Amino acid sequence: MDAAMVGEALLGAVVGVLVDRLASLEFINFFRGDQSFCSMVSLCLENCKNCFSLPPLGQMPSFKEFTIARMPGITNVGREFYGETSSLSKLFPSLEALRFEDMSGWVDWCILDSEEFSRLQKLEEYFYTQPSVDAMPRGTVGMVSMYLEGLTLDSCESLESLPLGGIQLQNLSSLWVRGCEKLKALPEQMHTLQPSLQTLVLGDCLEIESFPEGGLPSRLTSLGIYNCKKLIGGRRDWGLQTLPSLTFFSLSKDEDVLESFPEEGLLPPTLTFLRFGDLPNLKSLNFRGLQLLGSLETLFIWNCPQLQSLPEEGLPTSLLNLKLEHCPLLKPRCRREEGEDW
Fold it and tell me: Where do the R13L1/DRL21-like LRR repeat region domain residues begin and end (predicted)?
């Protein structure tokens, strides 16, 4: 790390400390009054509980990355965020990445008519431990539709539907939904409205029963599911065979996989990495289900206390890596040069 990067990191840390002790008007004037901020490239404002307005950052010529997180006093991203504007000024001329995280009070975003965010490449929104997320903040639909790449919803306990209904999200590549125990379904028409989705992780979503009609987006490469009892119970209807790009699959924390996994035809032959664990009732591996995975290179199994042995017929010939953790019945069978399955 060169001296400039070290200096920038230290400045960001100092700013974070100072900002948390400033009221909103002082906060704004703090940025207006110091020309040294004009050369700043990145800024993270976090846990600034006394702030109710964002600083005027729109005119900063070198500003490339901005993260704002856990600032409950911010309810409106308004004109003050852009600074003094004119017909000739270009707002956020260098900004490439914008991230909002756990903004529990945020309800409105004022988007100007000018061509702000002209170089924006990445927009991410994270919602954590919020009682309800019924919709994106007002004014964000256009921004979300054009730029949103990552969306995380974590422990939104009252959420029953995702705030994405009917929105075309051409650039959304990552969707993480965890701890949303009342969420009943994923958005309809995901395969057409979120065509670029590559990573989908669902965890502790107890009411989701199935994937949306029409299936998941065809570009999906990574799928993780854990502790989604109803969804896993309907796994024979997942239709993962229609996903030509899926290479990674993870399954964990379920008691309904009683005897054998994976069932024949459940997973697509494109998989290269398969991991599953925390399956207390799993007793055997399905030889036929594994043999159909002709591209499988890595198999990782953990915490399956009743798993007794590997398939007698063997594992896929494409397999390069096998990792077993906390499978006590398998341990002696896989002992180097001595075990029955070695």
Answer: 26-71
34 HSE (CA, 13 A, CB side): 13
Q: What is the largest CA-CA distance in the chain?
A: 78
Q: What is the pTM of this model?
A: 0.83
Q: Minimal CA–CA distance to 69: which of 37, 104, 26?
A: 104
Q: Is 290 helix (H, G, I), strand (E, B) or coil?
A: helix
Secondary structure letter of residue 92 according to DSSP: S
Q: How many CB atoms are located within 10 Å of the residue 119 CB?
A: 11
SS3 12: helix
- Is a pLDDT exceeding 50 seen at residue 18? no
- b/e per residue 278-304 (b: at least 16 CB within 10 A): bbeebbbbbbebbbbbeebeebebebb
Give the DSSP H or E segment for 213: none
Task: Tell me phi and psi for residue 88, to 5 degrees.
Answer: -95, -15
State pLDDT tens for residues 110-151.
877 546 788 888 888 887 766 555 556 776 777 778 888 998
